[in-house]
Design goal:
single chain; 753 residues; 4 domains; eight-stranded parallel barrel; 16 helices; 32% strand
Length: 753
């Protein structure tokens, strides 16, 4: 530090003691007068963000027009009050909670305040918290009067590494005093984003007091439920009457979640929220330890007062993620797949052999294992059988043939090499299905880390075999971050694209355990985030050479399961990444998943994200109303089907496909809106039209009245034409009536006149 800076800091410290520190302002707006923050007063509405520092009381006040944040600085860095000045709802009403016993961070320099007329306004604080330097900033984005963004960076200025695995901080709200719950503890309800209904089918709506009454849990690949006192999600919605409060976390560099946790402060119980911290297996991993001179920036927290209910908060979250680039790729038009799996005996027989040979007490990938597998391939995965599947695809109206396990020659879970001997040259196969069956192309399942029940034949990649902690090479696991694995896998996948593949599914990509091989260049042991980022890198390598090939990515940590571990947006940044995510494992019993409400979780996903989902489903369990077809067409932007059902259902599927294809752009590119769980709208604002799917999951027919405003489905007010239902238009509201058969579906088209 030079002498001038030391002198400036000395003057500042003297002024702090004297209580006469001036506001430090940067930007093109002059300092505004402090806002009266008396406990019984409500400040007047402020149309643009203003940040002030009152030298008499040492308080920084940020007002956005709807939100008000007060930060005390005299006793240290303490953002202790956060409220909605429009509704009076107080979100935070207690001292900010920082880690450890060091109290509040002691300010190292004056807050840097930037007030701008036509841009974001912000305030930055730097403070000392024990050995750590903490930088906390709050930003009021322009044209978003209900939003405050919080960012936190921790730094290690010492000469030694620091263990920061327990660092966490956040705003606090009182929910219980002694044995008495405060009113808000019962009045406020909250739900996670994006799974208000979990993939188990359970609704996830709780009173705020439940955070203090019990913890939550999480799980990953092949591990039991892990109890935790924290509640974590990509975002949270607090609802109170007609208003909602959105807490969202966005970190594209590491796996991080929006956290809530109970705190016991004497006789009082508070809830800590927003801020930063680690969850699950100590993610984000980069925040767990800081070497000398290093720092870590946690992800951005979005605090938003929403004028509306939880659904409007979901839409607000979706808009936020779209602003980060998490949106539908331009011109997204994935081919409708026909999957050969459901009418093919190979995979079931393969799984039986896996169960017979693969476990520590069994012979493993021995010659007899491959002898049995090859016998089944020769019997059930032939060129003639695949032609038969292509014929079904053509008859139904599908646009591409999807090949699941069995098309390659490589060792199980290892090499993606097309089997010329069994299926003919790949280029000839592609030409054949185009010329003889009118299909656009074909798509391939690709195993990256293994296959059921988690294993692959690791000898396919000798240099990338996982080295266990006891120094032994695993015969069943490969290390995805290993450069040798990535290089070889890239070469194989590029060859498939060169020969005509139009879609690659990255499956069996789960994190199956750490690797301790120092020659691989990863941390020792390797980590989950390294594993995930290796998968993203592989997708980017393919996209660099074949940008038009579509790539689906299963959850990088839990792979082929219904467990959603990784934040949805993590690694997604088209056009240089994967194009869609897996719709969980609703592929096996799609009808059961609908009626049990497990697959209704996809409805909530679409309210919160426009990132496309891909799923193929078995039509053999569908009914004559094509309920399975239409549910997944409505909730998965990329649709795949397979399994030829009985004749009456098959004819219904053909009719459904004939209806779907001319409307395909609504389902692949349209904006998704929900009137309720059973009423989905797919809107194309550029043409002023919408398509609505209306479902009845009950075993009795329904006569349904549906009320909504055009703005509820993304259309401007005006006169409309509706095809598929009778309707009336009164005082800006649409009242639509129609009958739906038991276990049925109705399609309604709307057009602005």
């Amino acid at each position: 530090m030079n002498r001038y800076n030391r002198f400036q800091k000395l003057l500042w410290l003297v002024a702090l003691v004297a209580g006469v520190i001036p506001t430090v302002v940067r930007g093109d707006q002059k300092e505004a007068k402090p806002v009266d923050t008396g406990t019984n007063s409500t400040p007047s509405f402020i149309p643009k963000p203003v940040i002030t520092w009152n030298p008499a009381n040492g308080r920084v006040i940020l007002t956005t027009g709807t939100m008000e944040l007060i930060v005390e600085t005299k006793s240290g860095l303490n953002p202790f009050s956060l409220r909605d000045v429009k509704t009076g709802w107080v979100y935070a009403d207690r001292d900010y909670a920082w880690s450890g016993d060091a109290g509040f961070p002691k300010l190292l320099e004056p807050p840097v305040i930037t007030n701008r007329e036509k841009a974001d306004s912000s305030v930055i604080f730097r403070g000392q918290l024990g050995p750590l330097v903490v930088e906390q900033s709050f930003t009021a984005p322009k044209n978003e009067p209900g939003v405050i963004l919080e960012n936190i960076t921790i730094s290690n200025p010492t000469d030694s590494p620091l263990d920061t695995i327990n660092f966490k901080c956040g705003f606090t709200k009182c929910v219980r005093q002694g044995e008495d719950w405060v009113n808000d503890a019962n009045d406020i309800h909250f739900c996670p984003v994006p799974y208000r209904r979990e993939t188990s089918g359970q609704m996830q709506v709780f009173a705020l007091r439940e955070i203090a009454e019990h913890g939550s849990s999480f799980s990953a690949w092949m591990e039991p439920e892990q109890p935790t006192p924290m509640w974590g999600a990509e975002g949270w919605v607090w609802s109170k009457g007609p208003s909602a409060f959105l807490l969202a976390k966005y970190n594209p560099q590491g796996m991080e979640w929006s956290l809530m946790e109970p705190l016991q402060r004497g006789m009082e119980t508070d809830i800590r929220f927003a801020g930063a911290g680690q969850w699950k297996h100590n993610h984000p991993e980069g925040a767990a330890r800081l070497d000398s001179g290093k720092s870590y920036s946690f992800g951005e927290t979005r605090l938003q007062a929403v004028d509306g209910d939880w659904k409007q908060a979901y839409y607000a979250y979706r808009g936020y993620l779209e602003s980060k680039g998490c949106k539908i790729p331009a011109g997204y038009n994935p081919p409708v797949h026909w999957n050969e799996l459901y009418d093919n005996e190979y995979f079931g027989r393969y799984c039986a052999v896996v169960g017979e040979y693969l476990s520590p007490s069994k012979p493993g990938y021995c010659p007899e294992f491959y002898e049995k597998i090859n016998k089944f391939l020769d019997q059930y995965y032939t060129l003639g059988l695949m032609k038969g599947e292509a014929a079904k695809a053509r008859e139904l109206g599908c646009e591409a043939l999807y090949l699941d396990p069995g098309w390659d020659t490589g060792k199980v879970g290892g090499l993606q090499v097309w089997d010329d001997a069994r299926l003919g040259p790949m280029k000839s196969f592609v030409e054949m299905i185009k010329k003889e069956y009118g299909l656009q192309g074909f798509s391939l399942w690709c195993s990256l880390a293994g296959v059921p029940p988690t294993y692959c034949d690791a000898s396919a990649y000798p240099s990338a075999q996982v080295l266990t902690q006891d120094g032994k090479k695993s015969p069943y696991l490969v290390c995805n971050p290993c450069p040798g694995f990535l290089d070889e896998k890239e070469k194989l996948l590029l060859e498939l694209c060169k020969s005509g593949a139009v879609f690659l599914m990255f499956d069996s990509n789960q994190y199956s355990g750490p690797c301790y091989d120092k020659t691989h260049g990863h941390n020792i042991p390797s980590t989950r985030e390294e594993h995930a980022k290796a998968l993203f890198e592989l997708a980017q390598r393919v996209k660099a050479k074949y940008p038009n090939v579509l790539i689906e990515m299963h959850d990088p940590i839990t792979g082929p399961s219904s467990i959603h571990y990784t934040p949805t947006y993590f690694g997604y940044h088209p056009p240089d990444s994967f194009d869609c995510l897996w719709g969980h494992e609703f592929m096996w019993d799609p009808m059961g998943d609908i009626v049990s409400r497990r697959a209704v979780s996809l409805y909530y996903f679409n309210l919160a994200y426009s990132i496309p989902l891909y799923l193929h489903v078995n039509l053999k369990g569908d009914n004559e109303n094509a309920l399975v077809f239409w549910w997944y067409a409505s909730t998965c932007r990329h649709l795949g089907v397979g399994g030829k059902p009985r004749e009456k259902v098959w004819q219904a599927e053909k009719q459904a496909m004939q209806t779907y294809l001319p409307l395909k752009r609504f389902f692949t590119q349209g904006e998704f809106y929900g009137v309720d769980e059973m009423v989905h709208a797919h809107t194309l604002p550029d043409i002023g039209r919408s398509v609505m799917n209306i479902f009845n999951l009950e075993n009795q027919p329904q006569k349904k009245e549906i009320r909504f405003r055009l703005s509820d489905i993304g259309l401007p007010a005006g006169s409309i034409e509706i095809d598929g239902a009778t309707f009336a238009q009164q005082d800006g509201e649409i009242i639509m009536e129609l009958s739906i058969p038991a276990g049925g579906h109705r399609l309604v088209k709307l057009r602005i006149l």
